[in-house]
Amino acid sequence: MKTHAALMLTLAASLANTASAQEGFEERILPFRPSIHGMPFTNGGGWNVPLQIKVGGKTFGWTVEWGFCGGLCYLAADDYYTSNWRPRTDPKPPTHSGLWDLLYKRQVDSLNQAGWAKIYYWQQRPLSGSATNPIHSMRQAVPGEWGMIKDKIDAGELAQVCEISVYGANENPGKNHQTLAYGYRHFPSTGRVELNIYDPNYPNADDIFLEFFVGGRETKLVKRRNATKIRDLRGLFYVPYDRTPTRRRFWANKDDSRPTWMLDTDGDGADEILRYDPRGRLFEIGDYRRGRLCWRSAGSTAHFGQLWDGRPMFTGDFDGDGREEIAFYYPGDGNVWLGRSNGSMLEWKRISAIAHFGNIGDGRPLWSEDFDGDGKTDVLFYYPGDHSWWLGRSTGEKLEWTLAGNTAGFGNLDDGRPMFVLDVDGDRRQDVLFNYPGDHNWWLGRFSGTTLHWTRVGNTAGFGRLDDGRRFFHGDFDRDRRDELVFYSPGDQKWWIADFGRTTLNWRLLCNTNGFGTMNDGRLFHVGDFDGDDRADVYFYSAIDGHHWIGSSDGATLHWSAPNPSFANYGWQTEELMIGDLDGDGKDDLLHAEHPFGNYTQRRSGTSAWTYVAPGCLPSFRSFGYGCPGRVATLQHYAVNLSSGPKLGTTNNFKLQGASPNTAVSLYLGLNRDEWAGYRLPLDLSMLGAKGCTLYVDPLLRFGGVSDAYGVRSTYVTLPIDSSLVGLRLYSQYVSHEPGVQAWPFSYSNAVESVLEL
User: Fold this and answer.
1) Could you tell me the pTM of the whole model?
2) Tally of domains within the chain
């Protein structure tokens, strides 16, 4: 029925295009309808958003009211692109439910693309004005935005729009609005445009459009429902769509005396190395910074006994805060314990009591993935004793267990048959896929709520038995946000890939590697995104020629290259390779661990050389970024510095040099250089009229003052003695009041990163 409806929409759009050409206007309507693809509940009434800041182990919280218009549009686009129509009976989700959390994340994603700075800048645009005005008018700006919107729709893509309805620097930017455009009608003779939109404030309404003029006439923007005016608007601009809000990072490790994981424990976008030392019964975190690996203790777990005794240990983002944690099952009390980083140590808390399941460390299949699509990691296990599947859904604070299904009719699934957990349909929920060697059928278990529903999705009898030890891989090889399944066939050295359609696995040839000889000889393979194009690639080491080979995916095939043979003399059978994004550049890196010496060498993605990773930590403070012009000189860059690393329990001097004399200045101090109010840092402030100025720091604390006659300001800050602050990074930046220099009357310095020490 849904397929039929989509086809009818496509046909209707085609007929409309034909008619429009005859009537003197151009038209393009995509097969999207708010009544089908939009969210069934309204954005009206606002959403209560609890916000928190943690400082020194203490939490300060308050609640604000937001609109989720951008998140609702993003989620509607997500569902449209993945053909995942949401049930029309969905109620407005309560705070911190799974759907609420997902909407909040997509709201932040949309604002990261729109940007408060740009919204704030646009709401200061006059309706008309001179071309020499530093803030161009809506009449000058809207036609260019319309061109980008039109290009997107002409390319068959939805176009998100930010509607500007308020005017002036003192107005709240949150009073503006985001909608989603899916079609247009353009009358070239008059310049009139009708832009069909999904407006989250009017769910199920297919008749809402924006009317405005381009091409010479004064821009006048009106939102209408049919012919009835809803409201006047001042302007609009195009908002890019972030189709991949959560990049999947791949990691792998080979067991040795110190189990090791690659995790982003602090949410900064770069992976850290987490390892457990069975001898000392403690965890350590290795933080990679500019070619050096800085190790620190993350705390003892001796009170739990020996963790590396075969008990299940699993990782993921269990509370959806963007930081990854490690969890383990403790047979001593039948509980699951979660270790969350506070910036320096792992803090442990119990998240589930599961003694009634028996010992889940008995070898039963167990996975930690997001099975309900809410952005939090859940736990799923299969119990061979009665063939039941149990889902531990994460609420952010604990695991809530429900029976997800029973597969007694399939026999014992833990018999060595190929079985995988992956997202084959792009709905952000992990699925379960297995092959039954008896009849070569493939069965897919997809989650609906907390229940697995099984369907037959194909047969591979033509490939013979697939449980013969051949290698399988999975990942998103074509950047469609769906995982594909790949296997290597040793008989003919061919690689085969399966892409999931709406109901079946569709197999095709991916590549052929007969020049490498048989690759089913035990060599190590790893999957990762090594070039940062959001497609999965394959890495292996060849003992035949001593080369490290990478098969880069272009979406259709794998292209093999050997960047560097310098490790030809390394024992490839025993080498440990870990995969992760160590430097946060969006590309996975290879990290080689040399045992028993504990040294590390690294191959950064985008380079061909392996480099030694020097042990040791960076200096306790460093400068980064640049200042922007003030009154002193056009090219003057401010410089904020520390005379030494900041010490807890002492008074520290944060010094500004090169400012304008006798000028009001403020020192910003914060613990975050990655995000401010939900927006990514560094934040370019050019949109405010501050050319060349950048905000580097989330200003948790502000200290005001005045520079002296030489443009110098020293701010003395006494830092408290608090062990929970040790190891945290403190960021500082100065801002000065510089009216008349640029449209935005403030200038910003460079920034300093410092590690807090006792």
Assistant:
1) 0.58
2) 2
